[in-house]
Amino acid sequence: MSERAPLLKSQRSLDHELVNQGHMACPGCGAVLAMRYVLNVLGPKTIVVLPACCWSVISGRHPASALNVPLFHTAFETAAAVATGVRGALDARGDSETHVLAWAGDGGTFDIGLQALSGAAERNEDIIYVCYDNEAYMNTGVQRSSSTPPGAWTTTTPAAQPEDRDKKDIMGIMAAHRIPYAATAAIAYPDDLMAKVKKARDTRGMRFLHIFCPCPTGWRTPPDMTVELARAAVQARVFPLYEVENGETWSLTLEPEGRPIADYIRAQGRFAHVDDQTIAQYQSATDRRWDQLMKRMAQGC
Amino acid sequence: MKQLLMGDHAVSRAVGLARVDFIAAYPITPQTLIVEELSEMAARGDIHTRFVKVESEHTALAACMGASMTGVRTFTATASQGLLLMHEILHWAAGARTPIVMVNVNRAIAPPWNLWSEQTDSLAQRDTGWLQFYCENNQDVLDTTLQAFKIAERTLVPAMLVLDAFILSHTTEPVDVPEQAEADAFLPPYSPRHILDTDAPRAFGSITGADDYFELKRLRHESMRDVLAIAAEVDADFETRFGRGHGLIKPYRCEDAELVIVTSGTTSSTARAAVDALRDQGRAVGMINVRLFRPFPGELLARAIGSAPKVAVIDRNLCVGLGGIFAQELRADLYGRDVRPEVFGFVTGLGGGDITPASVSAMAGHALANTPPADNAPIWWK
Ligand SMILES: Cc1ncc(C[n+]2csc(CCOP(=O)(O)OP(=O)(O)O)c2C)c(N)n1
Ligand SMILES: [Mg+2]
Predict the structure, then answer these.
(1) In this predicted model, what pLDDT tens digit does every residue of A95-144 receive, in sequence order?
(2) At B93, which CATH number?
(3) Which of the listed residues A137, A143, A211, A212 should we mutate to test ligand 1's pocket, taking the one with most ligand atoms within 8 A of CB?
(4) Ligand 1 pocket at CB < 6 A
(5) Same domain as B227, residue B152
């Protein structure tokens, strides 16, 4: 293996890290932690395909790069499509060792990139697709996506008319494709997250990871609350941690305490306009979704 | 060896001869025969290609871009609505300098639905940074496909070649198919320069300021202009090896012409027959087949037009509100030159209407007898 060209001076002090210091994320960005944990497991033999999202900025300005792995910036809706091509070329060259990591936001996954993602999943492309979910289009200044939760303020769902639709069930959609491995993870639980990346790494075919990444800028929260908020979402059963194998075997990887959702909601500026009565409605919606998930776990589909 | 091949199958055969590593494509009439034949060839084991049957043209091109960035030879084919769906990625693939080769079977754009020949689909992509060839017959199709890989890989400009719906795609003609060894000698394996490589990690396409952005764009322009010389060189090499070249443009009987007809694609064969008939009647008419459209071969055209006082451009395409696109490009190019003939812009054959030797002769007669409309308006010829 030839020597890798250092892309940033800081690389020397962070030899073991694949995410460099000096990236361009906002303070307290959850998406940076997610990338760091994922690459730590996948290692340097990974090619990253990156559609338009916050990470297109975070990764740095030419000629610097925040990643010590090859990175291809691509169009918003093409993460799974380009990853298909990268994998195809590696296969053609007899390289089955290198991982192909498609790394997209919730907008690039739930919305504009869903068709390409569904195609890749249906074909069972041998790629790892990570959706880092910050629940809005953050790159463009906090507009709603189909991952934005009910009640949330965004610049296109103002407080006077906040988001009123439930989050799209992306895991249900991916499970319906019967891909070998799909899992949720959150940056507050790195061990759980990295165990899932390991499992994904050691599985072949389409692998999908849905990683919950709070965004202080878009959620109107202090930067030092990011990890705590991710923990709160998991513990309040807003974002349960589980895996789905072959679309059939659903299993919880962490038993949440079932904390009241009000604490999670009240901690965030984006929900400042939401009253107690509405929070009670969200609580029952969350309970319903949890019951449905438990049924899936029990039935196995 | 001479074989009877439809245009679409001439493409598939050339793709096989080019030993393409990666294909991603989505079916659309009249391109379907290309992908069907390639699927058969792959299933029989005649070609060793990873062929991904994707869920859209948009993904087809994006996947080819990913594969090309990872260092292998790639191909896709489409037509009309499929090409339009690719638009954003056409720009991206060209900007990423991925030497993808694509065939577009020229087909009219809806609405209303119309599956027949028209060039507006590919001409509408003229600013996306792809070089464009317009093929005249099935031999041209096969040869240009092989040449396109070589030109694209040398210049890192992706190549689109274009054949007329049905008139070529589904029409059988004798085609001289090279032996694999001859094709290999002409087109060696692709040796990429900058790829996604974990041993030399680089970021491609990161944010830049205006300075770097400007320079990258300028360099793309230079590379596109380089295509003129390199395509000529590749065609000359091809001619030495296979005994036939196609030229970037192909002038015919332009000497002392009072009128030069400018055409592309299959219309050129029709126009050649019309020119012979007109010359037999003693009328000094010549014609030029424009094979390479991007980069625009303005210098070559100006030289071939020479001192002819009139030019009639026959466009089977339309830029709504402006007129025929070949006419528009030619006028713009001639403006700064010494050669300043009157240019007649005929728009004809839209949606697959027939263009015949008789209609070409009639257009020529009109041009010889008249002056062009003062405002460069198109002359509609049904
Ligand atoms: C075709 C297209 N439409 C719109 C945009 C503008 N755009 C860039 S990033 C983005 C939002 C990305 O949202 P998400 O995928 O959730 O990632 P995040 O920015 O939140 O990290 C949008 C709308 C674009 N680049 N391309
Ligand atoms: Mg987002």
Answers:
(1) 999 999 999 999 999 999 999 999 999 999 999 999 999 999 999 999 99
(2) 3.40.50.970
(3) A137
(4) A 52-54, 76, 104-108, 134, 136-140, 145
(5) yes
Q: What DSSP line would sit under A186-206, residue for residue?
A: ETT-HHHHHHHHHHHHTS-S-
**Which tokens sit at A224?**
């030092």
The reply to whether B262 and B182 lie within a common domain is: no
Q: Which of B31, B128, B33 is nearest to B80 (CA)?
A: B31
Residues B172 and B261 in one domain: no
- As a three-state string, the secondary structure of B82-134 is HHHHCHHHHHHHHHCCCCCEEEEEECCCCCCCCCCCCCHHHHCCCCCCCEEEE
Average pLDDT rounded to a whole number, residues A205-209:
99
Judge whether A180 lies within some domain. yes
Q: Shortest CB distance from A85 goes to which of B65, B199, B212?
A: B65
How much of chain B is helix, strand and coil, in % rounded to 5?
40, 20, 35
CATH of the domain at B304: 3.40.50.920
Cα A122–chain centre separation: 20
Across the interface, whether the CB atoms of A62 and B201 are under 8 A apart is answered no
Residue A15 lies in a domain: no
Q: B229 to each of B154, B191, B236, how far by Cα in Å? A: 11, 21, 11
Of the three residues B194, B225, B242, the one that is the final residue of a domain is B242
Residue A182 corresponds to which amino acid?
A: A
Of A84, A93, A122, A126, which to mutate for an interface test with B (greatest number of B Cβ within 10 Å)?
A: A84
Per the structure, the count of domains in chain B is 2
Alpha carbons B271 and B361: distance in angstroms, whole number:
8
Per residue in A166-198, pLDDT (tens digit) is: 999 999 999 999 999 999 999 999 999 999 999
Q: How many domains does chain A have?
A: 1
- Across the interface, which of A62, A81, A87 has its CB nearest the CB of B212? A62
CA-to-CA separations, A167 to A110, A135, A182, in angstroms, rounded: 9, 9, 18
The CATH number of whichever domain residue A114 belongs to comes to: 3.40.50.970
From chain A, the residues in CB contact with B59 under 8 A are 78, 80-81, 84, 115-116, 119
In a domain, A14, yes or no: no
Residue at a domain's end among B242, B269, B292: B242
| Positions in chain B whose pLDDT score sits under 50 | none
Structure letter (DSSP) for residue A18: S
Instruction: Note whether A50 and A105 are within 8 A (CB).
Output: no
Q: Print the domain residue range for B71.
A: 2-242
Q: Is the pTM of this model over 0.90?
A: yes
CA A230 / ligand 2 centre spacing (Å): 15
d(CA A252, CA A180): 17
Specify the pairing of strand B342-348 against strand B310-315.
parallel
Residues B9 and B140 in one domain: yes
Amino acid symbol at A63: P
Q: What does the block give as tokens for B333?
A: 């190019």
| DSSP bridge pairs for B133 | B161, B292
CA distances from A41 to A1, A37, A46, A71 (A): 20, 7, 10, 17
